């Protein structure tokens, strides 16, 4: 999952670290919202986002590309003018979730989680005035700093050509994917409740689920669907704005990049609380798709999306004029 696809950490992630999260948040006056719009998880994402951007700045008067030597870059792209700040990566090029090990959390996820816990207990301590909460705030602030140093040691997971998830929360004009995208139509299905999500992929690189060539996105929000007897699922992506492979019109201040193109989408469905499975015989290239019958709960399962092409080092330097 890319850093911009969601807030990355949830209330469940925080509770796994600290079981007091929910009762402390609820006991505050007013209560503290843990996840969703305006929540502590969202604020934690924003704070970490700005720290990544600040830590990945380059100070140069050339357009510096990843993997190209400074000498070559200066010879080819030297444009004169003053030195400037230019980020080495955009936030949608940061792979936030662990892509190599099952059941593991990435350095980015752990840092986000402990930063969010620090923010939660800072707010709780300020509202309730309890020394115990101040102690927890201090401890989680130190923990967050430790995981930030771990991330710097491991490097920032980076994908050169990102493909943001459908309805990416922090993407630009990504659109929406909610229960409104799902509708029942007449068919030969049976009554059941299941979950639905979709992913994008770029047909110029994608081969199959066994060989995605790093060209499949992370999942959209997972939506529940209730199907009655004699009905089947119809999915519309009319509310989404798939990537066209064109750089957003925001200039080069955050570095040059070219996203992948979302040429098709894949439909995933599965039982409530279980894994999601690939539906339909082939990836879908139309705005609307109707299931031929009940979803199949076998086969390829939904993954996390793109993995890092490389880990970017952090620069341990202070720019001087």
Question: How would you explain this protein's 3D organization?
Answer:
With 321 residues, this protein is of the alpha+beta class. The chain folds into two domains: 11-159, no CATH class; 179-290, no CATH class. It is built from six helices and eleven strands. The chain has helices spanning 11-17, 21-27, 40-55, 70-77, 107-128, 131-154; strands at 57-60, 84-87, 156-158, 182-186, 192-201, 223-227, 231-236, 264-271, 277-278, 288-290, 310-312. The strands form four sheets. It has a four-stranded antiparallel beta sheet, with no helix packed on it. Strand 8 (264-271) and strand 9 form a beta hairpin. The chain is globular. The model has no long low-confidence stretch (mean pLDDT 89).
Question: Gist?
Answer:
The chain is an alpha+beta fold and 321 residues long. Helix content is 26%, strand content 17%.
């Amino acid at each position: 999952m890319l850093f911009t696809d969601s807030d990355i950490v949830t209330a469940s992630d925080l509770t796994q670290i600290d079981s007091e999260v929910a009762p402390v948040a609820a006991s505050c006056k007013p209560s503290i919202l843990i996840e969703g719009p305006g929540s502590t998880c969202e604020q934690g994402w924003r704070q970490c986002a700005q720290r990544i951007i600040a830590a990945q700045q380059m100070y140069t008067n050339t357009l510096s590309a990843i993997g190209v030597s400074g000498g070559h870059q200066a010879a080819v792209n030297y444009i004169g003018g003053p030195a400037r700040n230019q980020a080495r990566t955009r936030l949608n090029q940061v792979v936030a979730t662990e892509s190599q090990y099952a059941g593991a959390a990435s350095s980015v996820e752990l840092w986000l989680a402990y930063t969010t816990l620090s923010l939660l207990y800072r707010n709780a301590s300020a509202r309730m005035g309890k020394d115990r909460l101040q102690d927890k705030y201090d401890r989680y602030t130190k923990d967050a700093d430790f995981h930030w140093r771990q991330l710097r040691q491991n490097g920032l997971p980076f994908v050169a050509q990102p493909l943001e998830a459908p309805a990416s929360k922090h993407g630009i004009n990504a659109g929406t994917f909610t229960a409104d995208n799902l509708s029942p139509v007449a068919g030969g299905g049976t009554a059941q409740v299941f979950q639905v999500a979709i992913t994008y992929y770029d047909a110029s690189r994608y081969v199959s689920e066994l060989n995605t060539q790093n060209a499949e996105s992370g999942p959209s929000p997972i939506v529940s669907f209730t199907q009655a007897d004699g009905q089947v699922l119809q999915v519309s992506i009319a509310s989404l704005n798939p990537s066209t492979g064109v750089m957003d019109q925001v200039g080069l201040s955050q570095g040059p990049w070219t996203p992948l193109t979302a040429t098709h989408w894949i439909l995933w469905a599965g039982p409530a609380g279980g894994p999601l499975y690939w539906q339909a015989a082939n990836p879908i290239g139309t705005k609307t798709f109707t299931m031929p019958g009940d979803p199949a709960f076998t086969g390829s399962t939904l993954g996390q999306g793109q993995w890092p092409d490389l880990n970017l080092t952090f620069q341990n330097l202070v720019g001087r004029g």
